[in-house]
Every structure is written in structure tokens, then in C-alpha cells.
Specification:
The protein is α+β, with helices and mostly antiparallel strands. It contains seven helices and 15 strands. It is elongated, with a radius of gyration of 34 Å.
């Protein structure tokens, strides 16, 4: 048996099942599995001595017993126990036990297991049940803050790159912009004829890609000299990220790629640009969410592109 040292066996005769969260009976002090944890479920030997004084809360499943000084009946003790959000008259009494709130921070949820307790979220500093413990399941404020930080970081990076491009203007890149023409597609056929022609010419980038997962793109090589050789028809896996596609395209174009060692603002860093908008493609985006068949993209170094 795997991990025999973890958990304990139920001490009820005829069960003996291994439970990873065993529960000790507060009356007879024996250990039982979850199914036999209650005194009546394991024929507790001490139950007859104290059963007239104990009741079980149907909310928290704990045993409830009023202290002798209160002179409360079991029913009155149970009512006060529930009114205190299941914190009073717990049996056996444990002064050191931390009071557990029965209310999950999600409105209308009361599913916190008193045997396990709440799960504290450090993002919004609130307590939740096991079902709502994940930030996405309780709409944690930290998610919105992280999303805003990501947007701000992206805007700062774009602004920094724009300044870098402006400082490294390339006359050669400006002069070649006019040479690349947009691929003409027949609007009536949705570019199907052009796509069929391209499929017979396109090269595979990376590992074998199933037909249903392919996206066909025209790629402009860096520093091309002859317009007729400027656009390279390729197909990639549409589930790839832009960053992974950049690395694959650089390999097939025999372009030196040192992006992993260069800082973000370095003019020698390679980027993929969508033509003719000349917008930088975010490396974390997925191809199929950003591009479509027959789109033109440029593989170029930052210092060779000028954004006006």
C-alpha cells in the first residue's frame, strides 16, 4: 500500500478503513473515519452516560453541551449555540481553539467546514470555504489589480519602444516600406483562391502541424533586397504563441536571434510586426487570436523600424 504512514485506520470493528483525516471521538477517545465519527455511528461506549446532556448541531455537526453554571436545557443550549454562529457550548470544550466563522465571504455561502476551517485569501484578506478559495471563484480584487498592472506595464513598454524606434531611424527600412505590397484577395471568394495557391507553396515551420491546426502567413525577411523574394509563405500551428512563432520564423529565415540575452529596448532585438499597421505583436498572444490566413507579418529588428 502506498504511503501507509499517513492517516489512521478506523477503530470500528468491521470497518478498519484507512482515513487520511481521522477524527477522534471526544467521548471514548478512539479514532474513526468520517463515516463513523459520530457517537451513534460507532456505538460509543460513553454515549449512554452523557447522551441526555448532549445534542448535535445540524449546521456545524459539532456536539453541543451547556456548562453546568448556565442551567440550560440541551435544546436551549443548542439555540444559543446556533445564535453565536456555532461558537458557544462546543463539546469537548477547548479554550485554545480558534473561533471559526461559519460564513464564507461570498454572499449567501455558509459552507465553511468547521473541521477544516476557512481558507484565507491574501489577495483580498478575507476567508472563504473550499469551493470559493480560488481568486477567480470569488472575484478577488487582486485579479483586477494584476490585470491593470499588466495593462500599465504593456503601455509603458510600448511607449519605451516607440521612443527607441524614434532614436534609431533607419533610412533603408523607410525606403523599403513602399516596396512591400499587400497581398490581393478576391473579396467575393474570401481569398480562397489565394489561400489554395499559398498552401501549395508554404513551408512548414517547426514540428509537423495537423491541417486543421495550420495558419498560413506571409513573412517578410529582415533586410530583404529583392521585392520578389521579400515575402515567404509559411504555415505554423495556430495554437502557438507569438513569442514561440518568432523563434521558429527566425530559425527558418537563418536570422540570428539573441532576444534571450538582449534588454527590451535594445535595437537588435527581433520583433514581429503586423503589416500594414506596423503594430508590434504581443509575444504572449496566441496566433489564432491575433492573425488570420494570408496576413503579412514582418520579422525585423527594433532599430530598423520607425513608428511615426
Amino acid at each position: 500500500m502506498e504511503l501507509p504512514q499517513i492517516g489512521k485506520h478506523c477503530q470500528l470493528s468491521g470497518c478498519n478503513s484507512l482515513d487520511f483525516l481521522p477524527i477522534a471521538c471526544p467521548l471514548c477517545k478512539h479514532t474513526f473515519c468520517g463515516d463513523h465519527r459520530l457517537p451513534l455511528a460507532h456505538d460509543c461506549s460513553q454515549w449512554s452516560r452523557i447522551n441526555n446532556q448532549l445534542t448535535q448541531c445540524n449546521v456545524c455537526q459539532h456536539l453541543v453541551k451547556a456548562s453546568e453554571s448556565t442551567n440550560l436545557s440541551p435544546e436551549e443550549a443548542l439555540d444559543k449555540h446556533k445564535a453565536s454562529k456555532c461558537s458557544l457550548f462546543l463539546y469537548p470544550p477547548n479554550e485554545s481553539m480558534k473561533t471559526v466563522s461559519q460564513n464564507c465571504a461570498v454572499r449567501g455561502c455558509h459552507n465553511i467546514d468547521p473541521r477544516i476551517g476557512p481558507v484565507h485569501c491574501n489577495g483580498c484578506d478575507q476567508d472563504f470555504c473550499l469551493t470559493h478559495r480560488y481568486p477567480s471563484s470569488h472575484q478577488c480584487s487582486l485579479l483586477h489589480e494584476n490585470e491593470q498592472k499588466k495593462i500599465d506595464k504593456k503601455l509603458m513598454a510600448q511607449e519605451k519602444l516607440a521612443k527607441t524606434f524614434h532614436q534609431h531611424k533607419s533610412a533603408a527600412a523607410i525606403s523599403t516600406t513602399a516596396k512591400v505590397k499587400k497581398v490581393k484577395t478576391n473579396t467575393k471568394t474570401g481569398g480562397m483562391i489565394e489561400l489554395m495557391k499559398m498552401k501549395s507553396q508554404a513551408k512548414n515551420v517547426g514540428a509537423s502541424v495537423p491541417i486543421t491546426s495550420r495558419i498560413y502567413l506571409y513573412v517578410r525577411k529582415p533586410n530583404f533586397k529583392e521585392p520578389k523574394n521579400s515575402l515567404l509563405p509559411l504555415y505554423l500551428d495556430k495554437k502557438n504563441t507569438i513569442g514561440k512563432s518568432l523563434d521558429l520564423i527566425a530559425d527558418i529565415c537563418n536570422v540570428t536571434n539573441k532576444n534571450n540575452t538582449l534588454p527590451a529596448s535594445h535595437p537588435e532585438r527581433l520583433e514581429l510586426y503586423k503589416f500594414p499597421e506596423m503594430t508590434i505583436l504581443d509575444k504572449s498572444d496566441i496566433l489564432e487570436n491575433t492573425l488570420q490566413n494570408l496576413d503579412i507579418i514582418w520579422l525585423e529588428r527594433q532599430g530598423n523600424i520607425t513608428i511615426s
